[in-house]
Every structure is written in C-alpha cells, then in structure tokens.
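Chapter review: from sequence to fold.
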Amino acid sequence: MNRPIIKFLADFGPLLIFFTIYFINENDLKAAIPPFIIATLIALVVVYLLEKRIPMVPLMSGIIITLFGGLTLYFDNKIFFYMKPTIINILFAAILFFGKYFTQKPLLKIFFQSAIELKDEGWKKLNDRWIIFFIFVAILNEIVWRIYCPEKEYIWVNFKVWGLLPISFLFAASQISLINKYKLKQ
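The token string follows.
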C-alpha cells in the first residue's frame, strides 16, 4: 500500500470501525468503544512509523478517545463518550486562543507552517476562524447529544460520523480562499 492510503486509513479507520461495530451490534455503544480505542491506538502507532512523530491533533484525540472511552466503560456511563467531541473541540479552541492571547502567536502557524506558508495576518485570521469553528462544533455536539441521547443515541452517532465530518471538511475547504489570499509568494 502506498503512504497516502495508509495515512488515510490511520486517520479514518478507527471511526469506520466504531461506526460499523456500533450498528452491527444493534446500536451498542459499549460494544463499539473497545475496538475504537484499540484501532485509535494502532492508528497512532502507524502514524508514528510513517512519520517518526505523532502530530499534536491525532495524539490529543487519541488520548481523549482512550480516556473518555475508558471512563464510559469503567463507570458504565455513556455521557462521558457523548461529551468527548465537545471536550476535544473546546480543548482545541482553548489551545488556539491561548496561543493568540498569551504567546501573541497564532499556534496554527506553529502546527502547520511546514505545510502552508502564509503572511502573519493570514495566520491570525485562520487561527481566529478555527477557534470560532471549534466552539461552534462543540456547541452543536452538546445540542445533538442532549436532545437525542440516550433514547435515540443512533441519531447522535450518525451525526458524529455523517454530520461532524462533512461539516469539518466543508469548513476546511471554505478556508482555501483565505489561504490563497495570504499565501507567501515563492
């Protein structure tokens, strides 16, 4: 297999495993969590073997998935898992906010400067937009799980996979014009 396919599988394979096991086991969240945690940890190892490092976002996501999945199983309380996307997104927003206001540097620049070269103004605007996006997605997750869980948990699971993922891709794609506007000329 070539590297991009392996990277794609490492990024989205655990979510696909979670979703598949959840529905095969008739909407059993507790049956889907252990394979999700294991697949996430394997994906982190694969990313490390490919890149000789683990990027911050997958590492933090892996830690939170393992922690909140474990808490859900240990305490037999699904609320921990329902809140996981909220906590991940608030954490990302807080990190970007901290970078902006306490270090006076947009942390997105530090995380992605090897992939994208932008003027400082572009990094600041992109950083602000991602802060707002992460807060929006956290609020959206809270609304959906509090309305539908636990009675209609499958709606939240579908929203998590078929709602949050496309929303994130669409938001990222909508940033291309800003990136192009502030891209450093080479």
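Two observations follow directly from the output. The mean pLDDT is 92. The helical segments are 3-24, 29-51, 56-75, 79-102, 107-112, 120-148, 153-174, 176-182.
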